[in-house]
Amino acid sequence: xxxxxxxxxxxxxxxxxxxxxxxxxxxxTIVLVNVQNATAKSxxxxxxxDVNAIQTKLEEFYNENSYYPATLTLTDLKGxxxxxxxxxxxxxxxxxxTVADSTAADxxxxxxxxxxxxxxxxxxxxxxAGQCAGYQMKASMEKANPSVxxxxxxx
Length: 155
Description:
By secondary structure, the chain is of the alpha+beta class. It contains one helix and five strands.
């Protein structure tokens, strides 16, 4: 009888190495996509929290003055952290919340592209001499549905 002597194998074959590299690449891609989605969702959460904080201050303003402001500045929102007025992804200055035309008859506003125009929108309506009857606050979202987070005046 003949015996077949097998040569002792040392190390890995090229195919084994390629399979391991492919598995690592697939896992790295999955992790990267999940991290990007999680950061976008966290920015959306910050946007909705900021809009809620601004709405609270606007309602306090209304309770003190019986009207909403036609423009929105930090002085109108006493006690609000200026970081709440800055979009988490954008570079919008805290004093520069975009204010829509206060002469508009309705409070509708087109959807805003977050990549090109980040930030928050204050849309007052029913204004007369700087005193408005209502408003909408809007923030463009990245991952949330709907893509625009909206809060309306309570009065």
